[in-house]
Write a structure and sequence with these properties.
This protein is 22% helix and 40% strand. It is of the alpha+beta class. It has one domain. The strands form 2 sheets. It has a 4-stranded mixed sheet. Strands 2-7-4-3 form a 4-stranded antiparallel sheet, with helices on one face. A hairpin with a 2-residue loop joins strand 5 and strand 6. The protein starts with a helix and ends with a strand.
Length: 159
């Protein structure tokens, strides 16, 4: 009987010690729901040439940035309720050819910040039409006051 109790105590201690080695990030990470507004998308005419990753918290800035990403578009910006949501904009900047893209993979809350993980596609092993392109992505999320960090990876967009 003493042996069984001792084994239970040892097993309990081992299990609790194993939990001590887990990372704080994994414990405090929770996925955040988001809605794609325009993602992935590509423009051929915009005043933005450099990459830009930002959080937009008002209707005016959102409409201005959204409409400027595709100057030739006749479409209005998708509706967003800025009383409850904010917009995250990922803009990859000017690219030398078609076949480039940018897309959100996930958004997660990591303790003191929000992390936006994205993938940026580029044609690495195939020919792509030589035309300037401007990949972008807009997503909406519930308002969150935490700072946002962007983490991306590049992948080969060739089939």
């Amino acid at each position: 009987m003493v042996s069984k109790v001792r084994n239970c105590i040892v097993i309990g201690l081992v299990c609790s010690l194993a939990a001590c080695g887990s990372s704080d990030d994994a414990e405090h990470e929770s996925l955040v729901a988001y809605t794609r507004l325009a993602c992935p998308a590509v423009s051929s005419n915009t005043p933005y040439e450099d990459s830009l990753f930002t959080v937009i918290d008002n209707e005016h800035e959102y409409r201005e940035r959204y409409l400027a990403t595709a100057l030739n578009s006749q479409q209005d910006a998708p509706a967003v309720d800025f009383d409850t949501h904010q917009v995250i904009m990922l803009y990859a900047g000017q690219k030398p050819s078609l076949g480039h893209s940018i897309d959100v993979e996930s958004i997660a809350e990591h303790g003191e910040f929000l992390q936006v993980s994205y993938r940026e596609g580029e044609p690495q092993s195939c020919g792509a039409d030589a035309a300037l392109s401007y990949p972008y992505c807009f997503v909406s999320v519930a308002i969150n006051d935490k700072p946002v960090r962007f983490e991306g990876e590049v992948f080969n967009s060739c089939p």
